[in-house]
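> forwarded from #structure-qc
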């Protein structure tokens, strides 16, 4: 898993937790009366629903972009197998050197 994937998953879980907390807060304050509180609850509810919709749409866009990137990488590897092997070898060499330097300390 790349660091971008980790950050994306962490952000998604944090937003989901925030959404759950906001829904729980809305349920707890549902019985409290007052125009100001009622208007605040309505605004929060609208923003929460808009956020859920936007998060779902962004998630779909990320999945689509990831699939396109994977297909492009596979296409490149099929068209240029030696170049792909060279890139993989170079990447693994650099990774090995970095890991070895950390381990040797």
């Amino acid at each position: 898993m790349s660091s971008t994937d980790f950050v994306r998953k962490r952000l998604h879980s944090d937003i989901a937790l925030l959404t759950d907390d906001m829904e729980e807060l809305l349920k707890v304050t549902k019985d409290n009366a007052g125009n100001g509180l009622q208007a605040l609850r309505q605004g929060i509810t609208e923003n929460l629903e808009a956020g859920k919709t936007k998060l779902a749409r962004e998630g779909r866009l990320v999945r689509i972009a990831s699939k396109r990137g994977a297909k492009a990488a596979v296409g490149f590897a099929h068209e240029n197998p030696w170049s792909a092997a060279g890139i993989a070898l170079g990447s693994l060499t650099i990774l090995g050197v970095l890991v070895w330097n950390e381990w040797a300390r």
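QC bot note: The helical segments are 3-28, 35-79, 81-104. The longest helix spans residues 35-79.
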